[in-house]
Design goal:
Elements: H1 9-19, H2 23-38, H3 42-50, H4 53-65, H5 72-86, H6 92-98, H7 102-111, H8 116-129, H9 133-141, H10 144-151, H11 159-171, H12 175-183, H13 186-199, H14 207-220, H15 224-232, H16 235-248, H17 253-266, E1 270-271, H18 321-325, H19 345-348, H20 366-372, H21 385-395, H22 403-414, H23 423-432, H24 444-448, E2 457-458, H25 466-479, E3 487-491, E4 508-510, E5 518-523, E6 527-532, E7 546-550, E8 557-565, E9 579-582, H26 583-587, E10 594-595, E11 598-604, E12 607-608, E13 619-626, E14 633-637, H27 644-657, E15 663-672, E16 678-686, H28 693-700, E17 704-709, H29 716-729, H30 734-742, E18 744-748, H31 753-757, H32 783-797, E19 804-811, E20 817-820, H33 824-831, H34 848-856, H35 877-885, E21 889-896, E22 908-909, H36 912-940, H37 944-949, H38 951-955, H39 985-997, H40 1007-1011, H41 1015-1018
Parallel strand pairs: 1-12, 6-8, 17-18, 17-19, 19-21
Antiparallel strand pairs: 2-22, 3-5, 4-7, 5-6, 7-14, 8-13, 9-10, 9-14, 11-13, 15-16, 16-18, 20-21
Helix pairs in contact: 1-2, 1-4, 2-5, 4-5, 5-8, 6-9, 7-8, 8-11, 8-39, 9-12, 10-11, 11-14, 13-14, 14-17, 16-17, 17-25, 23-27, 29-36, 30-36, 34-36
Bound molecules: zinc ion (ZN).
Biased composition (Acidic residues): 300-319, 353-371, 999-1008
Subcellular location: Cytoplasm, Cytosol
Cofactor: Zn(2+)
């Protein structure tokens, strides 16, 4: 046989296969092909596919199958080869349809159901055909499923075969077939089979069959009809009870998880018990009609937070160097910047009073100073603190008394000495705070104050299978509805359900205080379902929580489920616990927020929005709290609360604590918020040592450092870091003194007071994320951002562009504290752009602070930092201040809600002490910058050689910046993904091979008895082929590297 010049040997083989007339030569060719494909790698099969191998095999199959009495001596090896090749051919389904090979193969199957090997061979081929949905559907329409389903026996001893059949069955389940299977009652039949095999398997010998049946059920419940059928047929109950048996006996563990996932998947969707998904709190926005609520509605919950970068792709990176380099025109005329002169009082102050001991001059900013000096009592009826006290005192069984003396008596008797906190000042500040619901009650922890606990708090260990336990409890709710209490014990919209004493056996809940956001509490059984209020004027962003709970019994575990969380994962699955504050403990001298809660976990539940699409669902945060005292009043929160009133009183305390002759401390209002709350701006610097021109000049030439925080109200950790910063900068620490002499600090500690006050998680009152407004902030709807940006423009215009800008945030998915900065070079490099980064000039000074922090701050992780400019972040403070103001060191500082996985705090949850320390360390790092800036500014910009050195730094890149910090959860948070892997190709190969090698064990096959001969001996080489072909006719050369070259005719002699 000689190869024609243009054809390869393989092509000749393939063409001969289709035209061969006699059995002998067909078998010969099949054997040669199998020899070629059995050795070496998949590359040969791919090559064969590229040369029309699939088509040739299909055509041979059709020809043989159509004969009156198909010859299985040829068909068996042919089917085997087709299964092997087809499995690697993505278009095999389509090719099979085109060759009209699908139905003949099904017919072969139908005619040979009594022959195990023939059945298996047909099933494999049909299985690879089903890689195309249309082929699977075609088979379904031609009763393919029925043929296979009838093959599945009830409980017998022929286990192995049943498993294989079941695997074939679920492979055939295209969407259309699933519907057909459901319509034919297969769900019910599969459930009966599962029950049958479960009941008749005392020795656990048929686990693979039971597992395979669960696979099939998973496949048939991909459509809602399948899920409904499973529920209607009592599937949940069956699965629940069989799972209980499995849990009770050893060796059945592998069945539990698939069954639990199946229950979760089929558990009927349940709308949240709310009248509307919209927040209870609405705020009429200027220029918008009041009846239509603004903000996104009925949108799927997209993760748009700063802290969620793991789903980003590199294509989010800005790769356009010109865009990265360009500086946009200011968004407003220069003339408007004059209004910000007043925010730089230190530059215009003459310090004439330096030598006298008069108070700080407040004349420059009467509007704020007048309001906030904390001396005047609030109007009698503005803040009814007695409400708050009667609320907490009635349940704490302390006798009620009238308003002022009660506060005084409590403070006299129990008053804790908490640094920088004054309860009376807090009350005064709170009285001036304007909220949508007009709070009249204070939460005790905010009023009384908090001290970090004495000892560090380790991350909570996760018990094995805790989520499963919770899910099974949830399933019981469906199975045994009769003992569900289902009593609403708190409803923010229905005042009659608040603080009412008639829920005698229930806990009492309350959240109508600053930062509180519990919307509804339902007593379900031994546990409570809690629903969080959406951010004001919108219908989403549920994550932050803060509420009061009372009327508890001591030493009883209470389970709490927050059932409308939105994020896809949470640090609550990685050792984080909520925080708890006990009034009783505080009155006994332990005013501490403590990490609390056992059996903490976070998983997708079956709730959906009350009116939204059923496709979007929620997550449950569940935790169990065992309270220490009877009839205590306790507070639970996502993280250590820090209210706007706390900030206001803190600033008052700080202002009183400083020596005005040494320290220039000025609190002003940047502007008023939408709700009319002043947004504080604090200036801190050292007073000049004399009023001489030289000293005044030194002061006026100090570089500015601008710090902001809490644009995201749910990130209370940012406020604690800021608290540390403020206290340190006002302290007598020598480093703080040096910093004050070196810099003028401009601090906006709370960019979103309205959000903080009203307990929102992400947004301001306009239902939008303020940290996405920096490019074009709206002066009316986002006043704090508009004026913060205007103030930065002003600093720019007077030549005082900040040396450093940093916006403090909290990060919900990662551990440690870290910085995001901006670097053209690193962004271009990481984006894979063709631009040669070595030729880009960039001042590497943005790395000084993170490098210093890595050295001095134990919670800080340099490896978590990155300096990439993402398109999706281009309207954030960090990027806008960098790009539009030209601030080289423009950062977001992210602090974990959880704790650290490195350094001395490794394995510990952060407390307020560590957060405050971080605020101190950030300030300290600025001092190192002071030394380095001179060097960088003078030399680096002009010398490209120095810049090239920095390329080495790029090696130190945060490589994992796009990865989730955490390994996958031990238990599946989601149930929608099919957790069963499809059988892979190696499985199929070994099955195909096994069909021949184990052939002798099957008694209903006849062919191999005629032909086996020396097959055992040869089986390692060519296990598909029974016989015959003289090996000497083949002259197969093996090349040393990757198998043989089959692209020419060299082996054909
Ligand atoms: Zn944030």
């Amino acid at each position: 046989m000689a190869a024609p010049g243009s054809s390869s040997g393989l092509e000749v083989l393939l063409s001969t296969l289709q035209n061969a007339g006699d059995i002998e030569s067909t078998l010969n060719i099949l054997n040669v092909l199998d020899e070629l494909l059995s050795a070496g790698t998949d590359r040969r099969i791919t090559y064969m596919i590229s040369k029309g191998g699939s088509e040739a095999l299909l055509s041979a199959l059709v020809t043989t199958a159509r004969t009156f009495s198909p010859n299985f001596t040829i068909l068996l090896p042919l089917l085997h080869l087709l299964a092997k090749v087809g499995h690697r051919d993505r278009r095999i389904g389509m090719k099979a349809e085109k060759a009209e090979a699908v139905l003949p193969t099904l017919t072969l199957l139908k005619q040979n159901v009594k022959h195990t090997r023939r059945t298996a061979a047909c099933l494999w081929v049909l299985q690879v055909f089903c890689s195309s949905v249309t082929t699977a559907t075609l088979l379904g329409q031609n009763r393919g499923l029925d043929v296979i389903f009838r093959l599945i026996p009830p409980h017998t001893t022929r286990h192995k075969r049943t498993v294989k059949l079941l695997n074939h069955f679920h492979i055939f389940l295209s969407e259309a077939n699933v519907r057909a299977a459901v319509a034919k009652g297969y769900v019910s039949a599969l459930l009966k089979l599962y029950e049958d095999w479960h009941n008749k398997d005392p020795d656990h010998e048929t686990i693979p069959i039971r597992l395979a049946l669960l696979h099939c059920l998973h496949q048939t419940t991909h459509c809602s009809a399948g899920r409904d059928a499973l529920v209607a047929q009592g599937g949940i109950s069956l699965l629940y009870h069989t799972t209980q048996t499995c849990l009770a006996s050893n060796g059945l563990e592998s069945l539990v998880e698939p069954a639990v996932q199946l229950m979760r998947k089929c558990y009927p969707k349940c709308p949240l018990p709310l009248t509307s998904d919209q927040s209870v709190y609405t705020f009429p926005l200027p220029g918008r009609p009041t009846d239509t609520a603004p903000g996104p509605q009925d949108v799927s919950f997209e993760d748009d937070s700063d802290d969620d970068i793991e789903n980003e792709e590199d294509d989010d990176l800005e790769s356009d160097v010109n865009k990265l380099r360009s500086r946009p025109e200011p968004d407003r005329p220069l003339e408007q910047l004059g209004q910000y002169v007043r925010l730089c009082p230190e530059l215009h102050h003459d310090f004439q009073d330096l030598d006298s001991d008069s108070e700080v001059d407040s004349s420059s900013d009467e509007e704020v100073e007048g309001d906030q000096d904390g001396k005047g009592e609030p109007p009698e009826n503005h803040l009814q603190a007695c409400d708050f006290h009667s609320h907490f005192l009635s349940s704490a069984s302390v006798k009620q008394d009238s308003h002022p003396s009660m506060v005084d008596r409590l403070l006299e008797k129990h008053g804790a000495c908490i640094p920088h906190h004054d309860p009376r000042m807090y009350t005064t500040a709170a009285a001036l705070t304007k909220s949508i619901p007009e709070y009249s009650i204070l939460a005790f922890p905010d009023f009384w104050g908090h001290l970090p606990p004495q000892s560090k708090e380790p991350m909570a260990g996760r018990k094995p299978n805790v989520q499963r336990k919770k899910v099974l409890e949830d399933v019981q709710r469906l199975l045994n509805p009769e003992d569900i209490i289902d009593e609403v014990v708190f409803d923010l919209e229905d005042p009659s359900s608040q603080c009412s004493p008639d829920h005698s056996d229930s806990l009492s809940f309350f959240s109508k205080f600053e930062c509180g956001n519990l919307r509804k509490a339902v007593h379900v059984r031994r546990y409570y379902d809690l629903i969080l209020n959406a951010d004001a004027n919108c219908s989403q962003h549920h994550q932050w929580f803060y509420f009061e709970v009372s009327a508890m019994a001591a030493n009883v575990p209470y389970r709490f489920n927050i059932i409308n969380c939105e994020k896809a994962n949470s640090q609550f699955n990685y050792g984080m616990q909520p925080v708890l504050y006990s009034v009783r403990e505080a009155l006994e001298g332990r005013p501490n927020w403590l990490r609390t809660g056992t059996e903490v976990c976070y998983y997708r539940n079956s709730f959906c929005p009350s009116r939204g699409q059923k496709s979007s669902s929620f997550y449950t945060l569940t935790f169990t709290v065992t309270f220490k005292h009877n009839e205590d009043v306790c507070y639970l929160a996502y993280h250590y609360p820090y209210t706007y009133s706390a900030l206001q009183s803190h600033l008052q305390v700080l202002q009183r604590s400083v020596d005005p002759r040494k320290l220039f401390f000025r609190q002003q209002s940047l502007c008023n918020t939408l709700a009319g709350n002043p947004c504080p701006l604090v200036t801190i610097t050292a007073c000049p040592s004399s009023k001489s021109w030289k000293d005044l000049h030194q002061l006026r030439n100090r570089p500015c450092v601008v710090l902001t925080a809490r644009v995201h109200p749910g990130e209370s950790n940012a406020s604690w870091v800021m608290k540390g910063t403020l206290e340190f900068l006002c302290s007598s620490d020598p480093v703080a003194e040096a910093l004050r002499e070196a810099y003028i600090f401009k601090i906006i500690p709370m960019l979103n007071p309205d959000g903080v006050i009203n307990g929102t998680h992400r947004c301001s009152l306009n239902g939008e994320d303020l940290n996405r407004q920096w490019m074009k902030p709206d002066p009316v709807l986002s006043p704090t951002i508009y004026h913060a940006k205007g103030f930065l423009y002003y600093l720019n215009s007077i030549g005082k562009t900040p040396l450093v800008f940093c916006d403090y945030h909290g990060h919900s998915r990662k551990k440690n504290v870290f910085l995001y900065g901006c670097s053209v070079k690193e962004t271009v490099w990481q984006s894979g752009s063709a631009v040669n980064t070595a030729t880009l000039k960039e001042d590497p000074g943005y790395r000084t602070i993170p490098k210093t922090l890595d050295r001095i701050a134990p919670a800080f992780s340099f490896n978590s930092c990155n300096y990439l400019v993402e398109k999706s972040r281009e309207a954030t403070a960090r990027v806008v201040v960098w790009r539009e103001m030209g601030v080289l060191r423009s950062y977001t500082m992210e602090s974990t809600y959880n704790g650290c996985d490195q350094g001395v705090f490794k394995g510990m949850q952060t407390g307020t002490g560590e957060l405050e320390e971080m605020g101190v360390k950030f300030c300290q790092s600025l001092l190192s910058l002071r030394r380095n800036t001179m060097l960088y500014n003078r030399r680096v910009i002009s010398q490209p050689t120095l810049l090239n050195l920095d390329d080495n730094l790029l090696d130190h890149k945060s490589r994992n910046c796009f990865e989730d910090d955490e390994p996958p959860c031990v238990e599946e948070i989601e149930y929608l993904n099919d957790s069963f892997p499809e059988p892979n190709r190696n499985d199929l190969d070994s099955e195909v091979n096994g069909n021949t090698s184990s052939a002798e064990e099957e008694e209903d096959d006849e062919e191999e008895h005629q032909t086996t001969g020396n097959s055992r001996r040869r089986s390692m080489k060519s296990r598909l082929y029974p016989h015959l072909i003289g090996q000497e006719t083949l002259n197969i050369k093996r090349s040393p590297c990757n198998g043989m070259n089959i692209s020419n005719g060299q082996y054909l002699s």
